[in-house]
Structure formats: structure tokens, C-alpha cells
Model the fold of this input.
Amino acid sequence: METTKSSTEEEAFEFEVRKLEISDKRKGFVELLQQLTVCDSISDEAFDRRFEEVAEYGDDHLICVVEDRDSGRIIATGSVLIEKKFIRNCGKVGHIEDVVVDSNIRGKHLGRKMIGFLCDHARAMGCYKVILDCSSDNVAFYERCGFKRKEIQMVNYFGS
Amino acid sequence: METTKSSTEEEAFEFEVRKLEISDKRKGFVELLQQLTVCDSISDEAFDRRFEEVAEYGDDHLICVVEDRDSGRIIATGSVLIEKKFIRNCGKVGHIEDVVVDSNIRGKHLGRKMIGFLCDHARAMGCYKVILDCSSDNVAFYERCGFKRKEIQMVNYFGS
Done:
């Protein structure tokens, strides 16, 4: 009797979330970030240095990606930074940042999958909540991911 | 000719922002946090462990306080966590968190002084911006500190 994978299982496997690897730079990781915001090309040296700096924090700063196994390209990314507090009885909070899904990929629920992965990580690290900031356009998406509106994000840009 | 301090200089000295020290627990640091949010009493062991965990990050996670030299009590606190990104050409962002000024202290501009200190630290660490989340009641205060409204904070609470 043969065991065959269902199409759902295959898709789940095809779009696995994993930690960023140093070799992801040549798989289009930086180009993907450019869909999110300003990100000029980064030299290999600068990339490797930043990769190592982030890696020093281990599970306290996780940058994740989804690689399209057919094309070998990075098609989604997101990160979570774990903050250690004194409030909430020495609680921890996960800060989700820099979530982007390749604009060419539609209908695969990669954004939701990425958010779920980052939330699961924060929960496993002992966080009592995760937070993120988004534009009003993305509120409905994050509500579907289990988030609620809370406060107002304020920003102070330096040197501009 | 004598050199005398002006009252402004004396006040600036009196309310100096400094890094949290492990001995600040018995100066009312936890009681001050209780003015901000839920924070039950913390055992000395739990406090010391969390203090050491935060200290491991050095200048990447700074928790600051103001001590009232007359009473020996901690009367203001705030923290900034430095996030290392790939976007913005391997930029850094400062996350300001857990800012609280003793509700008994008024008119000393301690909140503004604390925010200024945390922003200066983030700038010195190479951040291109600092961000924070606040309630609508505090927007005007942060605008006076040089911040602008940006996005919407979303939150996902675990296990409640």
C-alpha cells in the first residue's frame, strides 16, 4: 500500500518557514526587503557582519524566511525580537518586524504562515504578548492573524 | 572669584539619568513600575537574574533610571532596545519601552529628560530612528519630544 502526500501536505512542505541562512543573500533576500522599504544593495561583508551580529542573540532575535524550492528564491521574510522586561513579573514581549511577502506570490497565505511561525516562537520563548506596527491598510490582515488594535506608534527620525 | 552653580545646573545634577543598577530594586524601582502596569513583587533572585540577562546585551538594551538624591528613591525609568536590521542598509532602530515618572513628581520635566536620554543613546548607537507606542493621551507629550504619529500598534496576547 502506497502512502501519498495530500496536496495540502505538499504545499505545507513546499512553503516551510526556516531561519535565515547566510547563503540567503544570493537567493534574493535583499531584493525581497526592497519591496518593503529602502534597502540599497548590501556588500557581502556588511551582510555577513550583520548576520553574525544578529546570530549572537540566538533565539532572542529570529529572522525567518520562506524559500521557494522550485525557483530557489526567498519569497517571504519576517523577524521577531524578544525583549526582556521587569514588568509583568519579569515578562517578555515579542516585537514582530519587517514582514514581507513577494508581491508576485498570491493566494498561498505566506504572510499568515510567517506571522503564525513568529508568534509560536515568541510564545515558546515565554512571551506574554507579541506586538507589531502596521499601516491602516494592513489592520484587517493582522486581525485575521489574531491581533487587535492597541496603541499609537510614534517615531522620531534622526538626521533627516 | 567664586564659581557658583546656577539653580538650573543644580537641578540638572539632582535629576541625572543613569543606567539601572542592581541595587535599585531596594530603592523602589519595582514599585515605580507598578505605576505603569501589572508588576507583582519580584523576588531578589528573579530580579538579579533578569538584570544579568539584560546586562548581557550591553548598550543594545539600556534600562535607565533617575534617582532622587534626597529620598534615595527611583523616580523615573525608561528603556531602549536596539534592533539590528538588514533594511535601511543594515540600519538600526531604537525601541523605547516602559517609560514612567513617579506620579508624585510634577513639573520637573523628568519624562522629557528620560526620552531625550534614550533618544541620544539610540542616535549614538547608530539608529536611524526611534519608535515607541503610546496611548492617545500621551501623543501630545511625545510630539513635544520630537516624535510624530506613524502607524497603528497591534497586539496579540497569549494565554489569556
Summary: Chain B touches chain A through 62 residues (CB under 8 Å). Chain B has a mean pLDDT of 91.
